[in-house]
């Protein structure tokens, strides 16, 4: 017999916020003390919670049944074989094992000084098994650590959490899309603890380690909260708020107030603003990320639909309602200096499940050098004397530089160093990077076996857009506390899937095409299975077209006396799929006897910021007799 035990594990940071137990080893032990199982079931969390010593674990090793690991959502699953694991469905004990520090989004994932592997008892219980129709025996066990126990465990891992909710003070309504940065008000130099973006309900979660607030002027060689005090210190927290280059900051002295001073490793806070930070003005002298595409210049806030992630608000109707694909030119302005010091910048992305729906556990991820195509970010200019006066010689500075260009260098952690030559002119309202968006998503799906006219789900599920936010960060060269955001896009719809082995040419010359960005496949019903069949008095096209950004789909015919139109194909646009049959609307018998070609076209509502993707098509020839 096989037993399946599954569930989710969580920890409470505070009463209204829990977090999944991520990427953690879960061990299942037999519990042989039958008499105490009932008592355990009614015990309080403080009575169940236990940190095991090495000696205690060694004594339990003979009772170990199996081991698994939670995923990023705290889910775990055991598949137990009665014979192999010698387990018959009795009481069990679940224990978490921590040989290292899980990734909760903290910047520093090193083990804390003096860290020792430890194990934590979750619970002891008798699973409530039930048999399925398939003959399996399953049970579910979900558990949430109370905040006291959870925060103690996280303290052993040197993980610190700030959970908060940001609202407008007068209405208490949430403020979404604001970057909240937590700072430590230190005596020598304020430390950045971390930052997070508020979700649709105004909530945010920042995870960091004590290393962030123990930095000194001697860091990274010596880290200690300054001044040195005889007890364990937490940070003195104040916050900064930013949106699109605009910012509002609390005074650092706010961190010295009683409710913010020496906070613990689970700190929950309610924040409110009288007004949100206003995006910075489009001043070309300010370093800012503003637009996507050199030709169409979609504004990252005004020209992105908040509900779909597609383009909107352009006076040319055909430029609207499009998702993004392929290489994207990210535009804005650069400076050489920040606060009088050399400037560095980088771009980051964050994946969302949908516009307005943040992806659980998602964090801002750097766009790396390999993700950036050739990009000229500015020029140096030199005046050269000529017989007729002077000539200006320009030398481009480029990422992924080419012959005749100077290379733009990168610092550690993907920071792009703005050249500091005295005659260097950085781009203003120009290119910042050319993003190879296929590096963010570039999956494929096999359509072999698709029959034109059928739903694509007969072969594969319908493919979906994926959703991302982009942001630009700048800082003084090598100075982390100076980092700020200067442009955050709305959530963008992105589609870079490629369809492989799409059937083409129907029964005429059957073949297939790969690496298409959508499906356009057709056949002629009267010729199915007989590619050289003749058409006399009827003509019916079987068609299938698919893409999550599908535009108009239509059939046309060329030949003597043409072109010829077919009835319109009705479907939602942008849609995901159109399939079925459409018959020629006029008399087939009246067509001159000759050769004809029928075409299927499908518009792709996709843009790279420069053009709209061309339509994709299929064709098939026949002879009318």
Note down, in words, how this protein is organized:
With 625 residues, this protein is mainly β. Strands 23, 24, 25, 26, 31, 35, 36 and 37 form an eight-stranded antiparallel sheet that branches. Strands 41, 42, 43, 44, 45, 46 and 48 form a seven-stranded mixed sheet that branches. A hairpin with a 6-residue loop joins strand 39 and strand 40 (511-513). The chain has five helices and 48 strands. The longest helix has 10 residues, at 147-156. The chain folds into four domains: 2-146, Carboxypeptidase-like, regulatory domain (Immunoglobulin-like, Sandwich); 160-273, Carboxypeptidase-like, regulatory domain (Immunoglobulin-like, Sandwich), CATH 2.60.40.1120; 288-494, no CATH class; 501-624, Immunoglobulin-like (Sandwich). Helix content is 5%, strand content 44%. The radius of gyration is 31 Å and the shape is flat.
What tags apply to this protein structure?
625 residues; mainly beta; Immunoglobulin-like; 7-stranded mixed sheet; 5 helices; 8-stranded antiparallel sheet
């Amino acid at each position: 017999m096989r037993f399946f035990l599954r569930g989710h594990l969580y920890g409470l940071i505070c009463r209204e916020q829990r977090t999944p137990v991520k990427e953690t080893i879960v061990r299942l032990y037999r519990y042989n003390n039958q008499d105490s199982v009932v008592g355990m079931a009614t015990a309080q969390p403080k009575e169940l919670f236990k940190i095991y010593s090495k000696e205690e674990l060694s004594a339990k090793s003979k009772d170990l049944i199996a081991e698994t690991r939670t995923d990023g959502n705290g889910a775990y699953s055991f598949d137990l074989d009665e014979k192999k694991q010698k387990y018959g469905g009795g009481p069990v004990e679940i224990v978490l094992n921590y040989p290292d520090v899980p990734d909760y989004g903290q910047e520093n994932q090193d083990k804390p000084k003096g860290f020792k592997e430890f194990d934590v008892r979750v619970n002891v219980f008798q699973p409530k098994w039930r048999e399925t129709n398939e003959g399996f025996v399953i049970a579910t066990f979900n558990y949430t650590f109370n905040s006291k126990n959870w925060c103690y465990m996280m303290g052993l891992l040197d993980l610190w959490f700030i959970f908060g909710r940001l609202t407008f003070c007068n209405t208490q309504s949430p403020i979404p899309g604001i970057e909240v940065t937590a700072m430590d008000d230190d005596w020598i130099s304020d430390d950045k603890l971390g930052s997070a973006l508020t979700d649709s309900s105004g909530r945010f979660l920042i995870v960091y380690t004590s290393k962030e607030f123990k930095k000194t002027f001697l860091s990274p060689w010596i880290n200690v909260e300054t001044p040195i005090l005889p007890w364990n210190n937490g940070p003195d927290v104040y916050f900064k708020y930013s949106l699109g280059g605009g910012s509002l900051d609390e005074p650092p002295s706010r961190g010295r107030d009683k409710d913010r001073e020496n906070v613990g490793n689970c700190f929950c806070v309610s924040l409110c603003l009288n007004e949100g930070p206003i995006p910075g003005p489009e001043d070309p002298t300010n370093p800012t990320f503003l637009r996507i595409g050199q030709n169409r210049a979609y504004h990252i806030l005004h020209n992105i639909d908040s509900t779909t992630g597609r383009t909107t608000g352009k006076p040319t109707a055909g430029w609207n309602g499009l998702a993004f694909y392929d290489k994207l030119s990210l535009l804005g302005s650069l400076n050489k200096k920040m606060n009088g010091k050399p400037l560095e910048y980088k771009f980051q992305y964050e994946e969302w499940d949908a516009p307005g729906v943040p992806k659980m556990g998602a964090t801002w991820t750097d766009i790396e050098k390999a993700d950036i195509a050739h990009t000229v970010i500015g020029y140096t200019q030199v005046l050269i004397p000529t017989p007729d006066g002077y000539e200006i010689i320009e030398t481009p500075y480029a990422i992924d530089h080419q012959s005749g260009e100077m290379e733009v260098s990168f610092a550690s952690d993907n920071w792009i160093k703005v050249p500091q030559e005295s005659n260097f002119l950085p781009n203003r309202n120009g290119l910042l990077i050319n993003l190879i968006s296929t590096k963010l998503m570039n999956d494929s799906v096999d359509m072999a076996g698709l029959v034109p006219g059928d739903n694509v789900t007969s072969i594969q599920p319908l493919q979906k857009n994926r959703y991302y936010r982009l942001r630009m960060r700048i800082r003084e060269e090598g100075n982390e506390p100076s980092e700020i955001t200067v442009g955050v896009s709305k959530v963008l719809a992105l589609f870079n899937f490629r369809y492989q082995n799409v059937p083409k040419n129907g029964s005429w010359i059957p073949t297939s095409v790969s690496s298409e960005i959508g499906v356009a496949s057709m056949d002629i019903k009267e010729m199915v299975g007989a590619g050289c069949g003749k058409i006399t008095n009827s003509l019916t096209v079987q068609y299938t077209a698919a893409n999550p950004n599908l535009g108009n789909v239509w059939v046309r015919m060329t030949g003597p006396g043409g072109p010829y139109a077919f009835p319109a194909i009705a479907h939602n646009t942008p849609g995901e799929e159109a399939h079925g049959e459409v018959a020629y609307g006029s008399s087939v018998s009246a067509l001159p006897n000759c050769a004809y070609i029928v075409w299927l076209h499908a518009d792709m509502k996709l843009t790279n910021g420069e053009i709209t993707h061309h339509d994709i098509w299929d064709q098939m020839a026949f002879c009318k007799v």
